[in-house]
Structures are given as C-alpha cells and as structure tokens.
Amino acid sequence: MFCPFKLDDVKFNEDELQNLFTKGTKDYIKQAVTIDNSLKEYLNHDGSLSATKMENDWFPDIDADVFISHSHLDLKKAIAFASYLNTLGLRTFIDSCVWENYKDLLKKIDDKYCVSSIKTNGSVIYDYDTRNKSTAYVQTILNSALMKMIDKTECLILIETPNSIKTKDLKSITTESCWIYSELLMSNCLRRKVPKRAQKHNVSNRLNLITDKKPLIVEYRVDTSHMVPITIKDIEKASNNGKNLGLDLLDQLYINEELVRGINLYGEENGKED
Questions:
Q1: Taken in order 11, 13, 14, 17, is the CA torsion positive or negative?
Q2: CA-CA distance, 16 to 77, in Å (whole number)?
Q3: Phi and psi at residue 88, to the nearest 5°
C-alpha cells in the first residue's frame, strides 16, 4: 500500500447515489460470490479447515487498486462510491465483501464441530467454549487475509461518517467497528510501496510528506492522523473531467499539494521505489 485516504462522507445527491448504487451492486455481488465460493474450498474432505490454504489462496480472482473501508451501516454509500471510482478507471474492493461472507464459513464449522445438542423443534444449541475457539480461528485468518489485500492494493480509502468514526475531540477519535480499527491500524503499520511510475509524475519531489438487551458496543481508539483527507470534489478535480483515469487519477491525488502538504507518505522509506 502507498497512501491511505479518509473521505469526508459520500456526498452525492439522492438520484446520483441511487444510480451509482444500482450499477455498483452487480460488481459487489460478483465479488461476494467469488469469495463465498472460495470459502467452501477451504474445508477439507475430512471436515477440517486448511488455514494455510486459506491464507495463501484468499482473493485469487480479485485485483484492485483501491481498498474501501466503511461501516456496515454505510454499505449503500460504499457500493455507490466504488461504482463512481470504477467509472474513473479504478478497480475497487469493498471490505464487507469479506467480513459479511466469512459468516458462511463459520456457520459450516460450527455445525460440524460445535453442536452441543439439537432440540425437538430443530433448533441447535452450540457449545460455548468450542464456538469461541472456532470464531477466534476464523477471524484471525480473515484478519490476515484483509491485511494481505490492503498490502496488495495501492491505496485505502476510509469512508468517514458518524457511523464509522466517532470524534469527541482531537484526542478522542474512536470507532465501534473492530474491522475498521484493524484496517486503520494496518494502513498505518504496513510497508509503504512507492509506485514505480512515481518518478514519471515527479511525485518523489513533490511529496514531503436477537433480544431486547442493550447491544454489545466496544469502542476502539483509532489514529487517522496518517490519512490524507479528501472529498468527492477532490476526486473530481483530480480526474480533470475524465482526462485522468485509473492510476493517473491516483497520481493526481498524490501530488495535490493542498492535500498532502505536511504529510509524509513515504514514512521511513522516502524516495524508495517499489
């Protein structure tokens, strides 16, 4: 990954949002189905789970430029935004394609290993301790797969809304999503891979840079200071009325001095090419 961005919400008008969402839904479903099919392949014939195969073979058919991180409450916005970037020549990946579908795999494992008893009405009771272990195993593997996906893409864009990020003050920025917490942490710790085309665009010299009980909510303190703030208007400006598409569009975002002033995208590897 080269650069993490935080998008100031997805501010399309209602008609634009609906049209982009309708177009983007097909791509989203396609990615989700691809992952769902691959999840089934990680179960061995004897019913055991191949963690090594899962880690080495996740997302075999997915090649993306942009990893989109978002709250599950903003799924419609995420799909619309992904569709918008697709029209600008960028390949996108929406994180919920993974953490929604991993539940299918977890259910298969739980039904195989964690059933304690079955009531006469057909409802299943799972063993608490065994299911805790199965959940931990699958989520650990999933988190590793997400990290590899973020590392493989060129940039991460967080859709920053009140659903994804809670800002009480400058020293108290939190999220209630463990997935967003993990993804932002990864975006800050992963190696910075400078695109080889950076020299062509002179980037190196310009960047200095089910009950009525109260639901369980956990707040994770997050750091977004390493992320470059952008808006839809910044993306439109970088595209130059469609003249800059795909990776050229990303380059224009990287070299926008108003955006990146004072932010070092290279970290400790300034000037080092991929």
A1: negative
A2: 11
A3: -95, 15
Place of tokens 């699958």: 138
Q: Which residues pair with 214 in a beta bridge?
A: none
Place of tokens 């997302």: 59
The number of beta carbons lying within 10 Å of the beta carbon of residue 250 is 26
Contact 247, 154 (CB under 8 A): yes
Q: Measured on CA atoms in the order 236, 237, 238, 240, is the torsion positive or negative?
A: positive
User: Whose CA is closest to 180, among 90, 107, 96, 239?
Assistant: 96
d(CA 167, CA 103): 30
Within its chain, how far is the Cα of 241 from the centroid? 27
Q: What's the burial of 4, exposed, middle or buried (CB within 10 Å: 0-12/13-18/19+)?
A: buried
pTM of the model: 0.77
Distance CA 114, CA 134 (A): 8
Joined tokens for residue 165: 């990020």
Other Cβ atoms closer than 10 A to 64:
19
Q: Give me the amino acid identity at 186.
A: M
Q: Which residues contact 179 (CB under 8 A, 6 or more apart)?
A: 69, 95, 99, 146
The tens place of each residue's pLDDT in the chain, 274 residues long, gives 888 999 998 989 999 999 999 999 988 888 776 666 666 677 677 767 777 776 665 555 678 999 999 999 999 999 999 999 999 999 999 988 776 667 777 887 888 889 999 887 888 899 999 999 988 988 887 888 788 889 989 999 999 999 999 987 767 889 999 999 999 999 988 888 888 776 565 554 555 443 344 566 777 788 888 888 999 999 999 999 889 999 999 999 888 866 666 566 655 444 444 4
DSSP-derived pairing of the beta strands 172-175 and 166-169? antiparallel
